[in-house]
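User: Please predict the structure of the protein below. I'd like the answer in C-alpha cell form so I can feed it into my own downstream comparison script.

Assistant: Understood. Taking the following sequence of 180 residues as input:
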Amino acid sequence: MVLWLTYLAAHTTYIIQVQITNDGRIALLFLTFLFAWAVDTVKSFGLLSLIYLIVVRRFGYLKENEKTFMPEDPLDHEKKENNLPRLKNFCLKMLEHRVIETISLVIISIYTIFILFWLTMLETINVDVNKMVAIDQVFLFIFAIEIMLKIFASNGMFIFTDLPNAFDATIVFVSLALNM
C-alpha cells in the first residue's frame, strides 16, 4: 500500500510536470508539489500509526499502558520484554489466515496472467517495456515481503524445511536482484 501510494504520487507528479513542459502551464507546478507533499504526509502518518498499533501497543510496553501489564508493586515482579515470540506468532497466524492466503493466491494468479501477457503479446501490442518492468518489480516486491515475513515467523526454517519454498525464495530474490 505504501509503495503504491509512493508510485501514485511520483507518477502523478511526472504527468503534471510533462504537461507543464508541453503546455507551459507553470501554475500547476505548485499544485504538483502540494499533491506530492500531501500524499507523502498521509503515507508517513499511516505507516507510523500502523507501526505504533502493531509493534508498540500490541507487543511492547509504554509508560501509558504499562500499568495494565505490571502489578502495583514493581519490586515483586521483574519487567520482562520478550515480545519477539509474540510478534513471530502474530506474523505466522496472519500469514496463515484464510483471507491473506486468498489474497496471496489472487496476486499470484494476476502475476501469472501478467507474465503470460508479457511473453506472448508484448510484440503485437505497443507497450513501454519500462512500465512492464516497473509492474514486475511491484509484484516481486510484494512476494519478497511475504517471503521475509514467513522467514521471520518461522525462525528461518521456512526455507530449509520445504524445497519448493526455497526455490520460490531463490527465484524471487534473484529476479529482484536482476531487475535492479
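That's the full C-alpha cell string. The radius of gyration is 22 Å.
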